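Render N-alpha-acetyltransferase daf-31 in 3D.
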Amino acid sequence: MNIRLARVDDVMGMQSTNLQNLPENYVMKFWMYHAMTWPQISFVAEDHKGRIVGYVLAKIEEESGENGDPVHGHVNSISVLRSYRRLGLAKKLMLLSQEAMASIYKAEYVSLHVRKSNKAAIGLYKGTLGFEVAQVEKKYYGDGEDALSMRLSLKER
Ligand code: ACO
């Protein structure tokens, strides 16, 4: 398994992985925008044939640095194909993105939203990576489920 920076020509593979894994899907423009605007903080995992089996798509918050809100990264979406799970791929993808957010953009923290019922992802964020719940956002998702808004400080690492 190879993990590397996402390129603009990966967006089809990333979108297809997303469609197989999550109900929150995005138009191609969204993937392109991220890959082109913040090219150093999104990563993919590929198999030996170069097929994308996992990705993390991230951004730097636009309003960062203004109004006293520190510069921070935000993970929009992460997923790993079912047969490649529990191999540590998501952990590696997250760590690479966090590292790049801190070193390239001087991001002070990273945020994300996750469904309250998503045990696997919460296990990854809270248990493995050390994220904390900043707040619960009621009915954040289209089907009415609450989101946990989570954060991890990138300072003093
Ligand atoms: N149950 C409990 N804990 C889990 C689970 C699980 N099913 N999966 C991962 N973890 C935790 C464990 O602590 C694990 O460490 P361990 O294997 O040593 O016990 C740790 O996370 C690291 O696991 P990885 O192997 O790195 O995670 P994986 O590559 O399997 O990917 C992911 C995890 C991305 C959540 C995967 O299950 C997935 O694609 N799920 C569907 C899509 C999804 O829910 N994405 C997140 C949505 S929120 C967002 O995108 C911001």
